[in-house]
Amino acid sequence: MERTGEERDPPKLREIAYDSFTRHLLANAVRPGQFVSQRELVELTGLTLGAIRELVPRLEAEGLVKTVPQRGMQVAHIDLGLIRDAYQFRLFLEKEAMALFVETASDATIAAIRAQHEDILRRAEQDGASLDLAAEAQAVDWGFHDTIIDALGNEIIAKAYRVNSIKIRLIRQELTRIDGLVVPVMNEHLAVIAAMETRDPALAADALARHIDSARRRALGLR
């Protein structure tokens, strides 16, 4: 029997609610550690209370919010445990993805990745890193890592990575924004890209691991 439109809509509405929440979270409309009510999320997202209520269990399961008795929902709090766990999870996934990527990606794909980074680096060195260029560099940074994961063609890994990526981006926004780091981050990426161009999976994976460890150390204030 064909389902009615009313029965088909809720899953789509849940995805809209999730996308809206994470978008506002990454835009700093809600902050890590902040307490927020379901009613406030309704006002923030413009969605129905029903959609928000259905969203909350998913956010709790993914560790993006937790319910605190007598206080309500708290957005994920950034602490040493979150930094450690998020970067370790990222390292495990990206090292394996990189090893496969360098064996399967076309020369044109890797050349395009290099060209993006060299363009950002050239402009930053010539004119300085404006806020607009920093935002562009951040998009190139995230896009680089997303490309490696997406090339696996594995939906389970991609979904798990995206949730962890939200946590990584929250950590960066609070502790290690790319503002002021455009040149060193682009240089780190170019070192990884040089390893990728050798087509040696172990060499590329090790280069990526060093970059991720460098990012982790920045988040911990160790460099």
TrEMBL record:
Pfam families: FCD, GntR. It comes from the Bacteria. This is DNA-binding GntR family transcriptional regulator. The keyword DNA-binding applies. The keyword DNA-binding applies. PROSITE patterns: HTH_GNTR. Residues 11-78 form the HTH gntR-type domain. One of its GO terms (molecular function) is DNA binding. Keywords: DNA-binding, Transcription, Transcription regulation.
